[in-house]
Amino acid sequence: MILSKAYFFGLQLLTFSLYFHFISLQISGGFPIGINYGQLGSNLSSPLQSINLIQTLIKVSRIKIYDTNPQILHALTNTKIQVSVMLPNQAIQNISATQEASDSWVKTNILPFYPLTRIRTILVGNEVLSDSSIEPTWTMLVPAMQNIKRSLRALGIHNIKVGTPLAMDVLKASFPPSSGAFRDDIAETVMRPLLQFLKKTKSFFFLDAYPYLTWADNLGSIDLNYTLFMNQTFTYKDPNSGLVYRNLLDQMVDAIVSAMAKLGYPRIRITIAETGWPNAGDVDQIGANIYNAAHYNRNLIRKLTSREGTPMRPNQTMFTYIFSLYNEDQKPGRGTERHWGLLYPNGSRVFEIDLNGRKLDSEYEPLPEPVNNEEFKGKIWCVVVHGANVSAVGPALDHACAQGNGTCDAIKSGRECYEPNTIVGHASYAFNAYWQRFRKSGGTCYFDGLAEQTAVDPSEFSNLYPTTISEAGHGSCNYPAA
Ligand SMILES: *C1O[C@H](CO)[C@@H](O)[C@H](O)[C@H]1NC(C)=O
Ligand SMILES: *[C@@H]1O[C@H](CO)[C@@H](O)[C@H](O)[C@H]1NC(C)=O
Ligand SMILES: *[C@@H]1O[C@H](CO)[C@@H](O)[C@H](O)[C@H]1NC(C)=O
Ligand SMILES: *[C@@H]1O[C@H](CO)[C@@H](O)[C@H](O)[C@H]1NC(C)=O
Ligand SMILES: *[C@@H]1O[C@H](CO)[C@@H](O)[C@H](O)[C@H]1NC(C)=O
Ligand SMILES: *[C@@H]1O[C@H](CO)[C@@H](O)[C@H](O)[C@H]1NC(C)=O
Ligand SMILES: *[C@@H]1O[C@H](CO)[C@@H](O)[C@H](O)[C@H]1NC(C)=O
Ligand SMILES: *[C@@H]1O[C@H](CO)[C@@H](O)[C@H](O)[C@H]1NC(C)=O
User: Fold this and answer.
1) CATH architecture of the domain with residue range 20-64+164-363
2) Mind listing the pLDDT tens digit for each residue in 286-320?
3) Which keywords are on file for this protein (predicted)?
4) Any idea which ligand is nearest the CA of 343?
5) What pLDDT, on a 0 to 100 scale, did the predictor assign at position 459?
6) Domain limits of the chain?
7) Among 321, 235, 246, 335, which residue's Cα sits nearest to residue 282?
8) What average pLDDT does the segment 320-342 reach?
């Protein structure tokens, strides 16, 4: 912005203060899209290559990482990229207990890089209030944040915000959005002091918001295109507020706004710390595909760059970090967990995307049609992945067989599934038997990457992954199917 010099002298001071106000708005404002850079993948491009990809291919100037990885922070030196770093959940207890522990964490993890690396946010923990196994630390969260803020102040550092990312499960009610309210077990003990801290320090409520998960958990009740920002005709009117919604993400964000307002903090700004859509998943996971992932992310970016805000917060810019830079193959859990990336580990794109939001749909190459937007109705089995590391399969086989009586009876010597008598053959039977038995109670077909779902009946093969057709199909061993 160029200021006209033709102001009266008497107005100059005002002009300057307006000018500086404008500059600071630009700094705290700026382009609203960033990206999460997680590293739980084998063979990921190096930190230096990754930062290069973020600058040249992804083209965003905000990133969020899940630790204070020195290689990444070093690679960011003298770049214009602003970075949000994270303090691990396990450190919260000590850091809340003493100011010294906090000072020491900041000295070790921040000072070696700041200010040449533009560290702008320290996130204390990750979805702490979603993890009941660390419940004793919940009430230590805000004290830890306060200590970190004090450590920064003592060092004269005033341009690093302190926050903590929370998931939608901090709410006990989220629909309709006006009914949003925090869970009773945390509302007074954690949320109230947290909101007070965020207000006092002018920080943000960092929210992990996944419309995909809400949609997939409520199959049949939410329009897919409404979730993907693709249905221009469908709207939802909140009966209490009268506000009209055009996509699921806005509903989720406004549910948080309502919950904050109920505790007396209606104006704390929200940053979306994670959102995205999986580009692949297990056979029994609906809607996880490249088509939906591309549309979700492209439309999300257009919405955010338009700065339309949400119905409760019209025209408010909402900073958002897309999840995620890479598909990360070392994440446990269901198949979708490993497929949130905009990039494959080798740095090539999963789908085209312009993170500046200027490209029109018609300017993109056509995408593969989605084949799993309907629930999968066939049978599914769980078998050893082709090319699995055989030395790791043996221990996993023992683990599967140890989980319950009878799981592995059919592969005992002389029984119907003993042949082929190979580790991979036995493990496929055992992984499947284990998964069929425990999938209803949350068991996954994963085994540290050694197993995957298939819609092809493994009973058809006498030798898993037969190399000739004659090795397939002796048919006396029946793999159970769900
Ligand atoms: C063993 O299997 C039987 C029959 O399926 C079941 O009732 C029992 O609870 C199982 N025991 C264990 C330890 O899993
Ligand atoms: C990682 O790279 C090595 C060497 O290029 C390759 O052998 C291995 O299969 C790769 N692992 C994965 C999970 O892609
Ligand atoms: C917490 O502090 C104790 C005592 O100083 C130390 O032994 C322990 O390693 C610390 N834990 C973490 C996670 O830093
Ligand atoms: C979503 O929108 C696309 C394109 O507008 C359309 O082809 C598809 O049928 C819609 N899907 C649903 C589930 O409404
Ligand atoms: C939009 O949603 C409405 C109501 O669910 C549905 O009838 C219509 O087909 C949808 N349109 C698209 C393009 O998905
Ligand atoms: C938001 O921006 C639009 C377009 O600039 C404007 O018409 C509308 O009045 C604004 N709404 C509020 C609440 O500021
Ligand atoms: C990168 O990995 C993807 C997925 O595995 C693959 O399709 C693509 O060919 C690879 N690209 C290069 C340049 O190796
Ligand atoms: C294969 O698994 C074994 C046992 O878990 C492990 O020691 C080895 O490093 C693995 N090899 C590769 C290439 O991952």
Assistant:
1) Alpha-Beta Barrel (3.20)
2) 999 999 999 999 999 999 999 999 999 999 999 99
3) Cell membrane, Disulfide bond, Glycoprotein, Glycosidase, GPI-anchor, Hydrolase, Lipoprotein, Membrane, Signal, Transmembrane, Transmembrane helix
4) 7
5) 77
6) 20-64+164-363, 381-460
7) 335
8) 95
Mutate to test the pocket of ligand 5, among 223, 229, 237 (most ligand atoms within 8 A of CB): 223
Is the CB–ligand 3 distance for residue 130 below 6 Å? no
Mean pLDDT of 99-123: 98
Closest ligand 2 atom to 42 CA: 13
The answer to whether the beta carbons of residues 36 and 321 sit under 8 Å apart is yes
* Catalytically annotated residues: 127, 274
Whether the CA torsion 55, 85, 292, 307 is positive or negative: it is negative
Confidence of residue 4 (pLDDT cuts 50, 70, 90): very low
Model confidence, pTM: 0.86
399 lines ligand 8 (CB under 6 A): no
Q: How far away, in angstroms, is 387 Cα from ligand 8 center?
A: 12
Q: What is the mean pLDDT of the chain?
A: 89
Residue nearest to atom 7 of ligand 4 (CA): 225
User: How far is 193 from 95, CA to CA, in rounded Å?
Assistant: 17
CA-atom Rg of the chain in angstroms:
25
